[in-house]
Amino acid sequence: MNPDKCSPDTAEDMEPAESFIQQAMEIIIQEAVKKGTNVKEKVCEWRPPEQLKELLDLELKDTGEPESKILQRCRDAIRYSVKTSHPRFFNQLFAGMEPHSMVASFITEAIKTSLYTYEVAPVFTLMEDAVLKTMMELIGWKDGGDGLFNPGGSMSNMYAVNLARYYYCPDFKETGIYGSPRLVMLTSQELFKKIVDLIGNYFYFTSIRGFPTCITEPSPNNYNFLLHNHDMNFKLVVAINVLTVSLLYLIRANSVAWNLHKMLMATLQCSAFLVRDKSCLLQRCHCAGASYLFQQDKFYDVSYDTGDKSVQCSRKPDAFKFWLMWKAVGTRELENRVDRRLVWDDLCLFSCFKYSLFLNVLLQPEFANVCFWYIPPSLRNLPDGPELRKKLHAVAPVVKERMMKSGTMMIGYQKHGDKPNFFRMVVISPQVKRQDLDFVLEEIHRLGKDL
SUPFAM superfamilies, alphabetically (predicted)? Predict the structure, then answer.
């Protein structure tokens, strides 16, 4: 140990740190932003795990490396990562680059604060409160409610389950699972994978989707339960002039999970959880009352200390990423963004019809997913039956492998029920052009025509 470096009188010089950050930001702009959104660049430079381990030199050592080498590490991390902002990335329900949200992410990392007490995060506490209140107004909750931002929709689903259980079993914390009534959760096979069926005899919770992950989502019948709507989209709550079934369920819902990092392209992760309850159910369910954080004799209104609403207490100020974006573009532009995505899906569907080697799983998709099979020439004359389905099931995985290794684009695939593997294409990025949709189908044919 060097006593001089450990002396309390020796402060770290910030000039080298500032210089490093400036150089790193240049790399981010050039490699991640400019190249990452350039259609002429690859979506990914695929490497198998063992080869990538060698390229990245993952071993951590006792001594540090020079700045030039660390900057190269930054370049390599970007180079070998998947460019989800690329116009030909259609693999997930998130894609594209939103500059205002990205800058907000930079700011929250630079500020390096945590969202649990007003004294530590005054700005972001008020911003989260303002965003949540406006979102509640948009979905028709005139009397308001409660809520918070979570690290993803699955976490919001878990919160909804927790609150429903606590609502019906308020002594659950003391009695535990074996001392409480057996509960039943009602969901569907189409729902997000983190929601599971619970077998029991007390019907307390049901969950529906506003934005199907896979194909479509049926509507529930409403009896004596708490209704949770997972993953609503902005178009449904802003621009609908006639009450649809989806909007009716949204207004009646007891809780809503709203993933803003999907169609609205906020940087990951940005997920709002809204609760119509105004009796502090969220806090009563999750509170631990840590005395070192939530003193009740503070000099300000302690209702702004939101940490006890969360099971994790400390949270990143994700609401700022949506607040800054909303401020920059306004409500109408957010609505227009969703409109444009739906137009692209119609164009994608039309392109599938245009190319005779593609067959849509649904003739008319209900929202933003276009699911289709690629039928290689060798299978075109086979009658529908077990042999065709077996061979068709093997097509998408091979095409996906070739696609990844060439780096030209990314599209997901999956099976559904007894249906063989099909491609699941989601058009989110505003950088997508008509020729990109044609390229997708032509590239799939190029990669799979010999199968």
Answer: PLP-dependent transferases (SSF53383)
**Do 114 and 121 meet the contact criterion of CB atoms below 8 Å apart?**
yes
pTM assigned to the model? 0.86
Q: Determine whether domain 114-319 maps to CATH 3.40.640.10.
A: yes
Q: Which two tokens stand for residue 153?
A: 């929709």
Q: What is the 3-state secondary structure (H, E, C) of 98-147?
A: CHHHHHHHHHHHHHCCCCCCCCCCHHHHHHHHHHHHHHHHHCCCCCCCEE
Amino acid symbol at 237 = V
Listed residue (395, 451, 398, 387) closest to 422, CA to CA: 395
Report the first-to-last Cα separation within the chain, whole angstroms: 63
In order, the DSSP letters of 160-183 are HHHHHHHHH-TTHHHHTGGGS---
The domain segmentation of the chain, as residue ranges, is 114-319
| Structure tokens belonging to residue 312 | 């994790």
Q: Give yes or no for a contact between 124 and 445, defined as CB atoms under 8 angstroms apart.
A: no
Q: What is the pLDDT of residues 116-166, one digit of tens each?
A: 999 999 999 999 999 999 999 888 888 899 999 999 888 888 888 888 888
Summarised one tens digit per residue, pLDDT across range 289-340 is 888 888 898 899 999 999 999 998 889 999 999 999 999 999 988 888 888 7
Inter-CA distances, 189 with 172, 215, 259, 414, Å: 28, 11, 20, 14
Give the SS3 label for residue 73: helix
| Interacting residues of 139 by C-beta distance below 8 A, sequence separation 6+ | 232, 237, 250, 251, 256, 274
Lowest mean pLDDT among 184-188, 217-221, 430-434, 435-439: 217-221
What distance lies between CA 60 and its chain's CA centroid? Answer: 31
Residue (of 442, 363, 432) closest to 403 by Cα position:
442
The type of residue at 368 is A
Task: Let me know: does 382 contact 388? Beta carbons within 8 Å.
Answer: yes
The residue count for the chain: 451
Tell the burial category of 63 from Cβ atoms under 10 Å away from its Cβ (0-12, 13-18, 19+). Answer: exposed
pLDDT, average across residues 64-86:
96
How far is residue 245's CA from residue 263's CA, in Å, rounded to a whole number? Answer: 21
Residues 6+ apart with CB under 8 A from 129: 304
pLDDT band at 353 (very low <50, low <70, confident <90, very high): low
Of 106, 86, 176, the residue nearest 432 (C-alpha): 86
Q: In a 10 Å sphere around its CB, with 0-12 CB exposed, 13-18 middle and 19+ buried, how is residue 88 labelled?
A: buried
Euclidean distance between CA atoms 84 and 346, whole angstroms:
22
Nearest Cα residue to 183 out of 192, 194, 167, 191:
167
